[in-house]
Prior knowledge:
Blueprint: H1 7-21, H2 26-45, H3 69-73
Amino acid sequence: MFGSFGWMELMLILIIVLIIFGAGKLPQLGEGLGKAIKGFKKSVHEADAIDVTPGEQPPATQPPPQVSAQAQSAPPPPAPVPQEHPKQG
């Protein structure tokens, strides 16, 4: 991967990274990158352990509520109309 990069190119990339992120953020960036690579490698090697074959699904604990046909076809109730009170005074 780094065969085509010389030491000058790598040094230039390092300097640009230092300018952008600063020296204080580099350990955090390295740690995050290392964890990401470890997680990726782990998921690649453990992908065979996941069973994706379709099988029997466990029954649901509660069936979804049934809506009656009458409730579906009934129009919504009309909105209440505010009544005006006579003005005093």
